[in-house]
């Protein structure tokens, strides 16, 4: 019985590895970004760092927006690319005050914003921030939702700018019923944190639809990407951020951590769909890009549902009528 179980596990791992290999999309754009400026949230490590490195190698001015001091990453990117136009700015997406301070400073210092990559993310938190928002929702989604609104004027003033939201196929594992259900913990037993993550990514995709429509008239392209199962630090934080007495969830994340190590993509492989959204010439507004190809969004994201998510997001992030992108 045990031998059969082990064979089954090995078979599943090999199957996942095979699927991972054949679905690795590659962004083939050779776009030059000299004279352009990009903001990348979570750019200090993982996929954010690799995005910064790739765009910097194309001559882009890079602003790494991260809660962690990124001076070492800035130095490394400059050394590897020979591009001196790299800097770090502090941004804590779990604090709306920090997002507002960051946006105000950026708009004061920068004259253009060609690329905004809303990349930063977390998992495992089931505590609330200083703003009364569950941290998974605020860091993954609402912080970026507010940031995009606050930087809208700079994006619109810059010709042919792009906004990319790094989402996930886990958006399909959500239990959202209406707009006013986004800021609460799911009631599903045992795997509540996984569904809370999925809820944040589903809410993100709902807003991408509306951002895309409203920005389109200003020449700003908005799209979302799914990186795949990527070996980054997020799975480690899922374990450390889970309650120490929640043995089942810690065991679950530990199992996922092992699977990711065995079959997951590298960060370089994981950024390909994000780069496709950022650089490819044929990306449709509101597209959800998976392995550098368009992919359908969760079925519940109807126009009405997206409007409910949008309205509740405006309320939770305390975005005024003047600040809302029109």
Largest sheet: 8 strands, mixed
Note the total helix count: 12
Number of β-strand runs? 8
Strands ordered across the widest β-sheet: 3-2-1-4-5-6-7-8
- Kindly report the average pLDDT value: 86
Order of helices and strands: HEHEHEHEHHEHEHHHHEEH
Termini distance?
Answer: 61 Å
Helix proportion of residues, in percent?
Answer: 40-55%
Class of secondary structure makeup: alpha/beta
Output the radius of gyration.
19 Å
Based on CA inertia axes, which overall geometry fits? globular
Identify low-pLDDT runs.
Answer: none
Please give a structural write-up.
This protein is of the alpha/beta class. The protein is about 50% helix and about 10% strand. It contains 12 helices and 8 strands. The chain has helices at about 1-20, 45-55, 70-80, 95-110, 135-150, 150-155, 190-215, 235-240, 245-265, 265-270, 270-280, 305-315, and strands spanning about 35-40, 60-65, 85-90, 115-120, 160-165, 220-225, 290, 295. It has an 8-stranded mixed sheet, sandwiched between helices. β1 (about 35-40), α2 (about 45-55) and β2 form a beta-alpha-beta unit. α2 (about 45-55) runs parallel beside α3, α5 runs parallel beside α7 (about 190-215) and α8 runs antiparallel to α9. It is globular, with a radius of gyration of 19 Å. The N and C termini lie far apart (about 60 Å). The mean pLDDT is about 85.
Using brief descriptors, characterize the structure shown.
eight-stranded mixed β-sheet, 326 residues, single chain, globular, 8 strands, alpha/beta
């Amino acid at each position: 019985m045990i031998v059969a179980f082990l064979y089954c596990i090995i078979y599943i791992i090999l199957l996942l590895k095979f699927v991972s290999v054949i679905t690795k999309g590659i962004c083939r754009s050779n776009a030059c970004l000299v004279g352009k400026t990009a903001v990348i949230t979570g750019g200090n490590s993982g996929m954010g760092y690799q995005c910064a490195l790739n765009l910097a190698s194309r001559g882009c001015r890079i602003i790494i927006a991260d809660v962690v001091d990124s001076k070492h990453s800035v130095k490394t990117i400059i050394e590897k690319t020979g591009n001196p136009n790299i800097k770090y700015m502090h941004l804590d997406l779990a604090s709306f005050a920090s997002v507002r301070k960051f946006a105000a400073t950026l708009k004061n210092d920068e004259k253009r914003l060609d690329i905004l990559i809303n990349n930063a993310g977390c998992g495992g938190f089931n505590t609330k921030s200083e703003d009364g928002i569950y941290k998974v929702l605020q860091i993954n989604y609402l912080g970026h939702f507010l940031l995009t609104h606050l930087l809208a004027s700079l994006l619109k003033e810059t010709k042919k700018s792009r906004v990319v939201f790094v989402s996930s196929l886990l958006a399909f594992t959500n239990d959202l019923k209406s707009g006013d259900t986004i800021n609460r913990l799911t009631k599903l037993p045992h795997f509540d944190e996984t569904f809370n993550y999925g809820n944040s990514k589903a809410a993100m995709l709902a807003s991408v639809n509306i951002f895309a429509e409203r920005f389109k008239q200003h020449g700003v392209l908005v799209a979302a990407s799914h990186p795949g199962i990527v070996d980054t630090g997020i799975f480690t934080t899922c374990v450390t951020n889970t309650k120490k007495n929640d043995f089942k969830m810690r065991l679950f994340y530990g199992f996922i951590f092992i699977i990711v190590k065995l079959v997951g993509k590298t960060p370089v492989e994981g950024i390909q769909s994000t780069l496709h959204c950022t650089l490819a010439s044929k990306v449709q507004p509101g597209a959800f890009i998976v392995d550098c190809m368009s992919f359908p969004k969760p079925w519940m994201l109807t126009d009405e549902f997206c409007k409910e998510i949008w309205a509740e997001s405006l309320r939770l992030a305390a975005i005024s009528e003047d600040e809302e992108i029109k």
